[in-house]
Amino acid sequence: MRFTHFFFLLYILFFTSCKKEKLHLTKIEGSKIEITDSLKIDDEIEKYIAPFRNHIQKDLDSVLAYSVDTYSKTDGSLNTAIGNFMADAIYEETYPVFKKRTGKDIDLVLLNHGGIRSIISKGQIKLRTAYEIMPFENSIVVVALKGAQIDSLVNYLSKARRAHPISKLRLLLDEDFKVAEATIKGKPIYNDTTYYVCTNDFLYNGGDNMTFFKPNDSLYVLNYKIRNALIDHFKKVDTINPVIDDRFIQIN
Amino acid sequence: MKRREFIQKTVSGATALTIGGIGLQSFAELNSAKKITILHTNDVHSHIDAFGPEDGRNANKGGVSRRASLVENIRKENPNTLLLDAGDIFQGTPYFNYYGGELEFKLMSKLKYDAATIGNHDFDNGIDGLFAQLPHAQFEFISSNYDFSNTIMHTHTKPYKIFKKDGIKIGVFGLGIKLTGLVDPMMYKETNYLDPVETSQEMTRILKDEEQCDLIICLSHLGYHYRNRPEKMSDLKLASRTKDIDLIIGGHTHTFLPKPTVVKNSENKNMLVNQVGCYGINLGKIDFYFDTQKNKAANGTSIIV
């Protein structure tokens, strides 16, 4: 009995005295380790990823259409073949969706030159191509704008002097880069008319300094990604052969 | 690497000597110097595969299966290791477009991540898209300043978590960036953003004063520093306006810091802010050494970066 008590006491004393020796943070060492090919590959992880990777690779390699030539956003001054293709494709794919949901017609499409992220190479257009041209998840929106605001949009384009992709809008600039003529679907722009402008959420929110989308009469969010519209278009057409045309030019 | 090994060996050698003098085996265990290793990533952005040899900027860098072997080796060396991520796990490669983040979470679980905070891109498939992938994550989501109570994420994140490693209490809390103007409100729905400084003060009060944590780590997706926008909240700003945080692990700005930044907090005490770029190109490693008062350096905690 006594012995047990003694050990018990010893035990308590021992641990309480130890606990008083509190630990303190004495030293911190920081370093950065680069993940390079000199590190061993974990085989189990690699095996786990393989089926996912193979599925994606096979899918991205699937051929959707054929391109007659190589198209780059740097070929052309105020309009480019690749930009015209994109704006027209977005119009064609979005028009029926918007019409079905709202009963209204899209009047024009405006995208941005910087949003074309890669070239389209001559030959097979694969699913991978769509991800290269449009790696971002931006979605299509339609904005209702009065004619007066379309003027701001047109002025923006004349000042930017860049080949921002457009469809159904025609814009002629004079030699001083002033707007000489602007039409939508071949008709003049009227101040009181409401136009339905198709663009993406990035530009709608002021991307590329496109501040003319706000305020507006209404916004229609279609939950339709730009990339998916392009993929749908590639699947529909057999061959693409876009050209630089006269939709946005300077007349001398 | 060699130099560090040498330092470690001398440290453990010295401790063994002191303990030998006392001559009590169990006492030795309680008093010996302890080491906690914090490993971290940020803004991995679905970069599961390493960059190819043709990549213009990051050729042959990154890759989850390499990170896995590295982490395993470090854990073997020191089992008292935490692996943390500072957000933007999602978006950046077709893995995300195809599987919505499923593989990212599954691999992080396989690598035994302990916790992550939420970045703005983790809302890219909407808050519902994030929620849908939660069953694949066997690690904790820690968010202290996103009030999710009116959203589907309610009860699926924790404001803080305390990890116990070798008797050391490590408190971790998480901060997200202001979502207005950055993420479509349709995506984050009724997620309510709370002030990071006020939230941190509340978190450190709980973790330091109430829970008596030995180490406090903030997982932040606020961004390292905004040179042209001084009004914007950042890790450096947060660090200088708060106390009791030992380490801020940052993200969002994809900042490749050559080494962790030593910052003076509101009490003029040194603490660390670190961020390791993006795309799983680097792994951050911070070792915290604990010892009895008598072994503490005269000038307080020594920081070697």
From TrEMBL, chain A:
It comes from the Bacteria. Gene3D superfamilies: 5'-Nucleotidase, C-terminal domain (3.90.780.10). Signal peptide: none annotated. Pfam families: 5_nucleotid_C (PF02872). Coiled coil: none annotated. Residues 72-214 form the 5'-Nucleotidase C-terminal domain. This is 5'-nucleotidase. It comes from Hyunsoonleella aestuarii. The lineage of its organism: Bacteria, Pseudomonadati, Bacteroidota, Flavobacteriia, Flavobacteriales.
TrEMBL record, chain B:
Residues 37-255 form the Calcineurin-like phosphoesterase domain. The keyword Signal does not apply. Keywords: Hydrolase, Nucleotide-binding. Pfam families: Metallophos. The keyword Hydrolase applies. It comes from the Bacteria. Belongs to the 5'-nucleotidase family. PANTHER family: 5'-NUCLEOTIDASE, 5'-NUCLEOTIDASE-RELATED. This is Metallophosphatase.
